[in-house]
Amino acid sequence: MASEAAFFLGQFLRSPVTTGAIMPSSRYLAAAVATPILERGDPVVVELGPGTGPFTAEIQRRLGGRGRHIAVEINPRLARRLAERHPQVELVVDDAARLPHLLAERGVPAADVIVSGLPWASFTAGVQARLLDAVLRAMRPDGAFTTFSYAHARPLAPAIRFRHRLHAAFEEVVPGRTIWRNLPPAFVYHARRPRAAPVT
Ligand SMILES: C[S@@+](CC[C@H](N)C(=O)[O-])C[C@H]1O[C@@H](n2cnc3c(N)ncnc32)[C@H](O)[C@@H]1O
Fold it and tell me: Which Pfam families match (predicted)?
């Protein structure tokens, strides 16, 4: 656990904007982002920015061998570690902004659930728009999208901008309760019913 935290911190020091956090999320936050994964069926679950894999482990546990779990990680060092730990996950080392193309290459028309670990508040307006547009284009109309935000960042401009984008992109956006057993405390956005128009 200590070495995992140290490894993750090392990735933050190398690429602070892309990594966006100094330590991996807790299992409590992981449980909250994975709630749309139901106990039945064979869903296609896409995970964006798995890092060292706290959300990955929870998604795998909930799937219990059902469906497909495709994870897209841009950092090859994090991806290598994730692949060792979760060989059963279909790991793609690429930019999540290419998600519709990545799914098409794998014969997947659309995702049922997209779970994001991306650090939205670190991103510029342009990067936020590109990534959210990719999410909208890659999910089923009846699909679910979950993502998290740090509670302390809620009043900051990039977080506000992302919240507005999220409301523009989905008909339903419900913020969850603050998860205090995460460092730093965080909350989850549960989004459904993507609007047809791309985010600009
Ligand atoms: C805040 S960390 C979260 C890691 C993990 N999900 C967790 O909660 O501990 C953000 C992760 O997103 C990855 N990432 C950032 N931008 C990305 C992009 N455009 N495409 C795919 N992964 C990206 C980073 O490399 C990092 O692993």
Answer: Methyltransf_25 (PF13649)
